[in-house]
Amino acid sequence: MVSNRDPSSPTLSRYRKKRNFLVTPEPAPSASNLPAGQNLRFVVQKHWASRLHYDFRLEHDGVLLSWAVPKGPCYDPKEKRMAIRVEDHPVDYSDFEGTIPKKQYGAGSVIAWDRGTWEPVDDPKAGMSAGKLVFRLHGEKLAGLWELVRISKPGDRQDQWMLFKKRDEWARPLADFDVIKALPDSVTTHPLGLIEDREPKSGRARSGAEPDLDLAAAIAAPLPATLEPQRATLASSLPVGGDWITETKLDGYRILARVDKGRVRLFTSGGHDWTKKLAGLAVEVERLPVSSGWLDGEIVVLKDGLPDFGALQDAIDGAANQDIVFFLFDMPYLDGKDLRNVPLWTRRALLSGVLEGERERIRFSQDFEAPPAQVFEAAAGLGLEGLMLKRRDAPYESGRTQTWLKAKCRLRQELVICGFTARGGKDGEVGSLLLGYYESSEQGGREGSKLHDAGSVGTGWDARTGRDLWGRLAPLETDSAPFDIVVTRSRRWSRRAAGSERWVRPELVAEVEFAEWTANGVVRQASFKGLRMDKPARRVVREGGQTLTRAPATSRIKVTHPERIIDPASGMTKLDLARYYESVAAWILPHLKDRPVAMVRAPDGIEGEQFFQKHVERTGMPGVKAHDRKLWPNHPPLLTIDTVDALMSAAQMNAVEFHTWNSTVRRIDKPDRVIFDLDPGEGVKWTHVQEAALLVQTLLNELGLQAWLKTSGGKGLHVVVPLTPRLDYDAVKAFSKAFVRHLAKTIPERFSATSGAANRIGKVYVDYLRNGMAQTTAAAFSARARRGMGVSVPVSWEQLSELKSGAQWTVQTAREYLSFETQDPWATYWTTAQSLASASRRLQ
Question: What is the CA radius of gyration of the chain?
Fold first, then answer.
C-alpha cells in the first residue's frame, strides 16, 4: 500500500500533473522526514495570482489538505468565508515563498501569511469524509477554534466549503479587528511569534441565551390564498439609529412558497405560479416540517460561492435547474398561525428552527451582527449587489415599506426593453438594447403611465445570448418607438431604417447595472445582467439615482468623522485614508523626515475645495514640527513630518497629499536631489510615457548620473536623481532646465520643455520647475487627491514595462502590493552620492 508520505502517492497526482518542476520553484513531492507523532503543521499562504486570495493548508496523513479562501480568514464567527477545496500539496510546500512564473499554474507571488500547528478536535479523516472539520490553530496570527464545513454536493464543479471562527475566547467582531488588513505581511520576513504568547485573549465568550420568542401578536387564522410580498425601499444612506437586521441582498428572483397540507406551490413576486418551472425545488420545500404556511425568499444560483444572475436565468429553463438554491428570509404564516404582526426577529427565529439540519437547496438567509457599514464594505469588496436592512421589530406588511431598506453597492434595476439593433447590421444577433422605464401616474402607484426613454445597453452578453434575445424580440417588432418621453435622440423616431433601431412592444424586462443616471434620466455605462421573467413591464419604474456611500466601522485610529467620503468615485473614506497612511508609515517616513512639507488638505473630499498648507495654522496638528523662522527668513515657519504621530495627525486634519522640498532642513539651501516630472499631454499613449522615461534614464546615464523611478500616482512618472548637497537651488534648476531643453530639441516629436496644455498635445512635458527653491513634488507613497486615489510608488526600472499607468496602485491596493515585495527597489538610492558638475559641463 502506498503511503501519502510517498512522493508517488495518488493524493499528490493532481499536484504533480499541474506543474512543470523544471520551470516552477514550487517543491516537487518528496518523501517526508517527519517523525511519527510530530505536531501537525498549518500554513496560510497569501497568493496574488490572477486575483488575490489565501491558501489555507492543514497537514494530514503526509500531505497538506488545501483550500483557496478568496477573502482570507476572519476572527468574527458571523463571517463565513468561502473556501474552495483544491488539490493536496506536499508537506514541503508549507515552507514555500516565491514567484510562480508566467504561463505556469497559479502564476503569481506567494508569501507565508501565517504558520503554526493545528489540532483536530475529532478524527480528521472522519471529519473530511463527513464534510465537517473542527480544529484548533496555534499560529502567529490565528488562534482558537475554527471550523470548515462542506456546502457543495456530489457532482458540483467545485468542492466548496465555508471557513469560520468558532465562538470562543479568541473570537472578535470584524468591526474591532480585521486580521487581514491589520497584519498583511509575511511571517517569514516579519516574524511575530505565537499569538498565544504575545496577546491576551479577547475574553469574548459565547453570548447568553437568546430572549424568549415574542408570539403575543400571532393570530389563529386560515391559510391565505394569496400573499403580496413586503418590498424594500431604496436607501440613500445606511441607518445610524434603531435596531436593524442586516442580510445580504441576493442577486436572484423573489419567490414565495405556499404550503397547504404539505403540498407546495411557488409564486413570483408578481403572483405568477412557477411550481412546474421549479418542480424539483417544490419537492425540496415539501420536505420541510411545515404542514401549512407561507415562506418568503430568493432563488439564486451560486458560482464560486456568490450569486450569479446570468447562471440563474440559464438554470430556470435548462438542465441546471437542480443548481437553484432557495434562500429563505421570512415566514409570515406557519401551521395555522398568522405571524404577520409578530416581530421580524421572532419570525426569523421560527424559520431558522424549521430549517435546522443540512439541506443543499433550501437555506436560511443569514444575518450579520457587525455594524451595517462594516457589512456593506465587505459586501462591496465581494462584488455583491448590496444589503437588506430590516427593522428587527417590524411586522410583515405587503407592499413597499420603510421598515425594509435595500442598500446597493452598485446602481442596478429593471428596465423595459423597447427596441434593439442588430450586431454588425446583420439579422440574427442583438447588438444593443434600447431601454425605458415608466413614470408613475401617482406617487407610490404600482404601475406607470408614461414610458420614458432610458438610453441603451450594448454589453453584458455573449453571442449565444445575443441570438436568444433576437429570437425573443423579433416577434414583438413594431413600426415606431414606444416612448412617450424621448431624450436620447434629436430626430423624430418613426419607421425604422434597415440596420438601425428596431422597435418592439414594451413587454420584456432587462436587469441592468450602470454607473449613474444622467440629468435627463438616461443610464450611463450600462451592462446587461439578464432578463426578468418575473417582472411585468408596466411595474418597471425608476427606483432612484444614488449608490450608498461606503462608511467603514470604527477603528483603533482616533479619527473624527471617519465616515466622511474623500473620493466619491471609489467610496474612499477619511478612515480608509488614515488606515492607509498608518500601514505605510515605515515606507513613507524616510521620504518625509526632515524635509519641509506642503500638505494638500481636502476637508470636503477631493471634489470639494482643496488647499496647500505649508506653514503653521491655528488648527493644531500634534506631532507636526514647526521650525524656527530663521530657517527661511521672511517666511512663516516651515513644517516637517518626522514621526508616525505627526503623519496620523495630518491625516486626521484631512491631509490627502504630502509634497516635499528637494532639500532637508539641515541644508535648506542645498538640494540633495533633482526631479523630472514626466507629464503626458493630451493624446499621449501610455507606451510613449514609458519610452520617455527610458529616454530620460538613457540621457542621464550618458551624463554619468544614476536615476530612480516612481509612479506619480496620477498620469505620469517621476525620475529622481540623488545628489550630494553642494550646489544651490539656482544651479540645480539651471541644470534641469538645460537637460529638458536638450531632450525637447533632440526629440521634439516626443518631448516638450514648455508648460501649458497647448504646448504638450501629443507630447510628454518634462517639468523642471519643481527643482526651484521652495518647489515641491508628491512624496513616495503619498496618495493623490484624484479620482481613484492613486499612490506614488517607487519601482525598479525593470518594472517599467509592466506598469499600466501612473496610478498603477491606489490607496486600496498599494499596501497589499507592498506585502509581496521582498526587496526595496530604492535600497541604494539613499547611499548614492552624485555631483552635477561634470553633467552640467557636458550639456553646455
Answer: 31
The tens digit of pLDDT for each residue in 801-815 reads: 999 999 999 999 999
Angle 433-434-436 from CA coordinates, rounded to 5°: 130
Please report, for residues 736, 742, 839, the alpha-carbon distance to residue 842 in angstroms, rounded to integers and kept in the order given: 13, 11, 5
Q: Is residue 249 annotated as part of the catalytic site, yes or no?
A: yes
DSSP class of residue 96 equals -
| C-alpha cell of residue 592 | 518625509
Confidence class for position 447, pLDDT limits 50, 70, 90: low
In 681-728, alpha helices (H): 686-702
DSSP code of residue 539: G
d(CA 18, CA 100): 12
Three-state secondary structure string covering 241-299: CCCEEEEEECCCEEEEEEEECCEEEEEECCCCECCCCCHHHHHHHHCCCCCEEEEEEEE
The model's pLDDT over 63-118, given as tens digits with 9 standing for 90+, comes to: 999 999 999 999 999 999 999 999 999 999 999 999 999 999 999 999 999 999 99
* Local structure of 600: helix, strand or coil: strand
State the Cα–Cα distance between residues 560 and 562, nearest whole angstrom.
Answer: 5
Contact 68, 84 (CB under 8 A): yes
Over pLDDT 70: what percentage of the chain?
A: 90
71, 141, 249, 408: the active-site residue: 249
> Considering the entire predicted model, what is its pTM?
0.54
Task: Copy the grid coordinates of residue 606.
Answer: 477631493
Phi and psi dihedrals of 804, rounded to 5?
A: -100, -20
Q: Quote the CA–CA distance of 253 and 327 in Å, as a whole number.
A: 10
CA–CA gap between residue 139 and residue 118 (Å, rounded): 8
| Whether 74 contacts 83, CB under 8 Å | no
Output the pLDDT for position 36.
45
Fold of 411-539: OB fold (Dihydrolipoamide Acetyltransferase, E2P) (2.40.50)
The helix or strand, by DSSP H or E, that contains position 712, with its residue range, turns out to be none
- Rounded distance, CA 460 to CA 557, Å? 41
3-class secondary structure, 135: strand
CATH fold of 251-364 reads D-amino Acid Aminotransferase; Chain A, domain 1 (3.30.470)
- Within a 10 A sphere around the Cβ of 190, how many other Cβ atoms? 12
User: How much is the pLDDT for 623?
Assistant: 83
Class of domain 673-806+823-843 as given by CATH: alpha beta
